[in-house]
Amino acid sequence: MKLEIKNLSKKFKDVYVLKDINLTFESGKIYGFTGRNGSGKSVLLKIICGFYTPTSGEVLLDNYNYILNNDFPKSTRCLIEKPNFLPDLTGYENLKLLASIENKIGNKEIMDTIEKLNLKEEINKKYSKYSLGTKQKLGIAQVLMEEPKLIVLDEPLNGIENETAKEVRKILNEEKKKDKIIIVASHIKEDIDTLADVVYNIDNGIVEKIKG
């Protein structure tokens, strides 16, 4: 799988948030993006996921311009900004509901993911009762459980305790070995440096490679 961004710019009203970006992502690597809050990281991830349309330029997945065709990238799961689930359902019920959309996985795969993320004790509590860190872990669980080929994560370790953060890093490295593209953004440079094979910094809409 190959994801290509060509001559991409994005502006809101008259302000450019991203300026003439060219990037290539290939399977089997973790790509990290750093930059201060408001630098354009989340906007770039939303464009990759098909949530925003670029002002100019292209986004191609295996040469298919899915945004031009009003489509979403195939086999993709994402967690961008804060996770949001149905508050009156339990964590498990939320995951089960999401899994029922495509019916790719069953209870075993859901429970395996729950255990990996140390969610077992909280999974039968209502989502409205979750702490910030538990909400974040549930968001990561919904990304991982269906084995997507393209994983997009924005501030994935936000509010997560150190033990589980180490486990998430380990899981993402295992996912990388399954020939997936993993894209992670964080304003915490240390998180990205320890995780990503290739690192970019975004500043005022300009992307600069700083590692890899």
Describe the overall structure.
The chain is of the alpha/beta class and 212 residues long. Helices cover 31% and strands 29% of the residues. The strands form two sheets. It has a six-stranded mixed beta sheet, sandwiched between helices. A three-stranded antiparallel beta sheet has the order 2-1-4, covered by helices on one side. A hairpin with a 2-residue loop joins strand 1 and strand 2. The two termini are 19 Å apart.
Give the gist of this structure:
The chain has 212 residues and is of the alpha/beta class. It has 6 helices and 9 strands; from the N terminus they run βββαββαααβαβαββ. Helix content is 31%, strand content 29%.
Topology:
Elements lengths: L1 E11 L2 E12 L2 E6 L6 H8 L7 E6 L14 E4 L11 H12 L4 H10 L15 H13 L5 E5 L7 H15 L4 E5 L3 H7 L2 E6 L2 E6 L1
Parallel strand pairs: 3-7, 3-8, 5-6, 6-7
Antiparallel strand pairs: 1-2, 1-4, 8-9
Question: Which key features would you list for this structure?
Answer:
29% strand; 212 residues; 6 helices; 31% helix; alpha/beta; six-stranded mixed β-sheet
Low-confidence stretches: none
Kindly estimate the percentage of residues that lie in beta strands according to DSSP. Answer: 25-35%
Instruction: Outline the biggest β-sheet.
Output: 6 strands, mixed
Element-level helix/strand string: EEEHEEHHHEHEHEE
The residue-averaged pLDDT reads 92
